[in-house]
Amino acid sequence: MQLAAIIVSLVLIAVGVALFGRAILQIYQHMRLGQPVPKGTRTGEPGRRTVTVVKEFLGHTRMNQWGPIGIAHWGVAVGFFALLLTIANAIGQLFKADWLLPLIGDWLPYEIFTEFFALVTTLGILALIVVRQLSKPGRPGRKSRFAGSNFGQAYFVEAVILIVGACILTLRGLEGAQHGVDGYEAGFFVSYPLVAAFKGLSVGTLQNLTYLVAGIKIATSFIWMITVSLKTDMGVAWHRFLAFPNIWFKRESDGDVALGALQPMVSKGEPIDFEDPAEDAVFGVSKIEEFSWKGLLDFSTCTECGRCQSQCPAWNTGKPLSPKLLVMALRDHAHAKAPYLLAGGGKNAEGEERATEEQLANVPAAALAEADRPLIGTLEENGVIDPDVLWSCTTCGACVEQCPVDIEHVDHIVDMRRYQVMIESSFPSEAGTMLKNLEKKGNPWGLAKKQRLAWTKEVDFEVPVVGKDVEDLTEVDYLYWVGCAGALEDRAKKTTKAFAELLHIAGVKFAIMGGEEACTGDSARRLGNEFLFQQLGQQNVEMLNMAFGEDADEGVRVEKSKKKIVATCPHCFNTIANEYPQLGGEYEVIHHTQLLQHLVDEGKLVPVTPVEGLITYHDPCYLGRHNKVYTPPREIIAKVPGLRNEEMHRHKERGFCCGAGGARMWMEERIGKRINNERVDEALSLDPDIVSTACPFCLVMLTDSVNGKKNEGKAKESVQVVDVAQLLLDSVRTPVEPGGDGETADAPEPDPDPEPVK
Ligand code: SF4
Ligand code: SF4
User: Fold this and answer.
1) Taking residues 202-223, what's their average pLDDT?
2) How far is the CA of 407 from the centre of ligand 2 (A)?
3) Across residues 94-100, what is the average pLDDT?
């Protein structure tokens, strides 16, 4: 028994270690097939990056959003590394059954440590096995976050961890029995029942049992190692190693998720100069090897947990896009194509093969076939990613927010869109109208510039215009960036007028641009037209800098803290705050709900009139997830007397998109249920009187859906969709007259009937 266990174990260890070393080299070579990244972008602030990795691993900060599942995974993940020495112990036990690790083998803290992690690993994996079984896609279908994941691989990994955990505890029991542990003690606080069970067995039996269990533990561990070494695309196993570099090299060195700004377009690791692009510049991504090495690392790190999929609005409304399946498809394609690329294969811009026949002579046929697949293409074209998948994304960021290993889905999706739009001109045709309008008129509706100021005639106070009523913005506290929707779309204009009136009431000095400003370029950029975004952005940045009193020719600069902008549109807010710095525009930008909350806190706006009714607030993705503004709108709602707020099931970090982001506002939604209808169904399930939000795009999408539901008789006529600013104005504008019976404006008695919100 002993000899057999030794021989089998040593052979498996030798093969496992050799193959594992080869696999690591292979993965490294695969990553090197990707493009370089701009210098310093993935390595800046190494100390902070290291702290992030430690926090995310030891604190499981990304996983703990998932409650008990996060705790169970912590046990398994930390236990894997904490219990590595038990392999050395088991090898020693093969030769001498009562062998202990030198120095620490019978050191009480180490024994407690081992017992603790053996317990949490075993319990953790049992819990995760139960979770997977309960969430199998059988009945719930695509509602299961595991739909499309590789179940066989997951079962294998789960079985290995369970067997190893059980072996460690059994070996502890055998160790205690051989070393004469005769009562419950701290060093055997978990395994003592096993010690007691083994007591009374002969020494020979205990030794043989030790050889057997140590052999099983070693064989199981190294069969796992051999298997994963032969399958380097097995994310469910490899993520436990690749997650560390993937998190360390994440986009944001401060540890934040890759949301907010999109990154400038780069080719071969250098930003593209659109005024004079290099001859061989690559625009966007049309082949797997055109992703950066970090992109390829992202794909390989995916553990197929499906947390991204469970939150994706496209997937949840029956569209073909699942961020998990997208990442898995890219990973599988990258691994399958790698032998061809490693042999020197690749096509030039004309589609001609660069490699010689000799170079490709030993490349497996499967890899050659994989190399012929278009990255974006339909099923008939044998594409890796279907165009319907690519264009279904709203860039809501729910996937990025949820991913426990920090995969940067949105950046990858936009990179693929960039090639389709800028080189192939291949995108949903409806979006072409929006692009043309942006090019010609500077706004997506194609309305005349002078229309931008039309709303100012519809309010009964003066709205100062920069360059006309005020010379420049040094005379005011804020530039109010109205945005295209706020200036031109009827429903959004209500928010604009309400917000301007609130500023007027609070005595805030503000001004608006004179109508020459253009769209910020949010939709153009997210559609993939980076060139147009750069054009619009440059134009706006120049105009803004000038309005704030800067003069590039004279070298006059104004510090960022003096360039204050407030925006009612979260898309404008995000672009100006997070993306215009890439174009030389540094401003202090806040969202209107932040400013309103501040004015209410300061007592400059006092909501007094009750607005009766049940309200539910919808988080705009570009305000919430992309910029972490969750509290101010809720604080304002809480301050309006009479309102009772009830959260939808999906809110804050897990809020559900309205369907308009990522330029989806300008595309038809032909597949599955409309995303705005899904969101409104969720809102209406609370039977609210008011659905509130803080974004003109959300306002339009939600209003459209609510109106449709009213027409179908599925929503009560009185339900309103309003911006938080409108609610606040309604409460501030018409204060309750103090009554003779002790009523005061500060303590109003709620009216019996719901008061409509204007
Ligand atoms: S950004 Fe939103 S819509 Fe796009 S894949 Fe991620 S979750 Fe889905
Ligand atoms: S959340 Fe991240 S790791 Fe999990 S399936 Fe999605 S991409 Fe993969």
Assistant:
1) 97
2) 7
3) 96
Which protein residue's CA is at the shortest distance from atom 2 of ligand 1?
Answer: 396
Here the tokens at position 606 are 């006092």
The CATH architecture annotation of domain 605-733 reads 3-Layer(aba) Sandwich (3.40)
Residue-wise pLDDT for 534-572, tens only, equals: 999 999 999 999 999 998 888 889 999 999 999 999 999
Of 735 and 751, the structure prediction assigns the larger pLDDT to 735
When the candidates are 1.10.1060, 1.10.220, 3.40.50, 1.10.10, the CATH number that belongs to 274-319+328-337+363-422 is 1.10.1060
Average pLDDT, the chain: 94
What ligand is nearest to the CA atom of residue 315? 1
Residue whose CB lies within 8 A of the most ligand 1 atoms, among 259, 298, 312, for a mutation test: 312
Q: Which atom of ligand 2 is nearest to the CA of 309?
A: 6
* Cα–Cα distance, 363 to 19 (Å, whole number): 20
Give the 3-state DSSP-derived string for 64-102, with helices as H, strands as E and coil as C: HHHCHHHHHHHHHHHHHHHCCHHHHHHHHHHHCCCCCCC
Cα 397 to ligand 1 centroid, rounded to whole Å:
6
**Closest Cα partner for 219 from 229, 207, 227, 230?**
227
Minimum CA distance residue for ligand 1 atom 7: 312
Identify which ligand lies nearest to the alpha carbon of 397. Answer: 1
Report how far ligand 1's centroid is from the alpha carbon of 526 (Å). 12
pLDDT at res. 1? 77
Contact 130, 121 (CB under 8 A): no
Sign of CA dihedral 552, 557, 560, 566: negative
Q: How far is the CA of 515 from the centre of ligand 2 (A)?
A: 44
For residue 734, what pLDDT is reported?
Answer: 64
Residue 313 pLDDT > 80: yes
Q: Ligand 1 centre and the CA of 315: distance in Å?
A: 8
Q: Quote the pLDDT of residue 740.
A: 42
Q: Give the pLDDT band of residue 722 (cuts 50, 70, 90).
A: very high
Phi, psi of 679 (to 5 degrees): -65, -40
Q: Indicate if the pLDDT at residue 736 is higher than 70.
A: no
Residue with CA nearest ligand 1 atom 8: 312
Shortest-distance ligand to the CA of residue 312: 1
Q: What are the domain boundaries of the chain? A: 2-31+45-247, 274-319+328-337+363-422, 443-598, 605-733
Whether the domain at 2-31+45-247 and the domain at 605-733 fall into the same CATH topology: no
Residue nearest to atom 1 of ligand 2 (CA): 403
pLDDT for 737 equals 54
Sole residue written with tokens 């053996």: 118
For tokens 């000038």, name the residue.
546
Enter the CATH code of domain 2-31+45-247. 1.20.950
Q: Which residues have CB under 6 Å of ligand 2? A: 302-308, 323-324, 327, 402-405, 407
Q: Which of 396, 402, 413 to mutate to test the pocket of ligand 1 (most atoms within 8 A of CB)?
A: 396
For ligand 1, atom 1, name the residue with the nearest CA. 395
The number of the ligand nearest the C-alpha atom of 240 reads 2
Residue 83 has a CB neighbour count (10 Å cut-off) of 18
Each residue of 122-151: pLDDT tens digit? 999 999 999 999 999 887 788 899 999 999
Query: Cα 717 to chain center, whole Å?
Result: 36
